[in-house]
Design a protein that fits this description.
Oligomer: single chain
Radius of gyration: 16 Å
Helix content: 55-70%
Number of strands: 0
Largest sheet: none
Shape: elongated
Number of domains: 1
Number of helices: 6
């Protein structure tokens, strides 16, 4: 591998490689498992089901570039924590912002 290829790989780091709000997402994942009214998991009990909160959060963090500065890093971590909440799973504004961040 050449120096240029290594340098390009280092610049293409993803947020999930640098920082991920594990505690916040874990809290939301546990809370989501306890929701019983109007939740897709109530359709059929699947014992090994993974929460959608952690799926949304990890997918977003894996697709978004790592932050260049501390303000951007903090903003993205806060967004992940909010985006992982069940109430925001269909929030069109948050979904549009996630798409914009991913495609940027």
């Amino acid at each position: 591998m050449t120096w240029t290829e290594r340098s390009r790989m280092n610049r293409d780091r993803r947020l999930i490689e640098e920082s991920f709000p594990v505690k916040e997402v874990s809290v939301e994942s546990a809370r989501e498992k306890n929701i019983r009214h109007g939740h897709i998991s109530t359709l059929h009990i699947w014992w090994a089901r993974r929460s959608l909160a952690s799926s949304r959060a990890t997918n977003y963090a894996a697709l978004v570039p790592a932050s260049e500065n501390i303000e951007d890093w903090d903003r993205k971590r806060q967004f992940i924590a909010e985006f992982s909440k069940w109430e925001n799973s269909l929030n069109k504004t948050m979904i549009q912002r996630a798409r914009k961040d991913i495609l940027a």
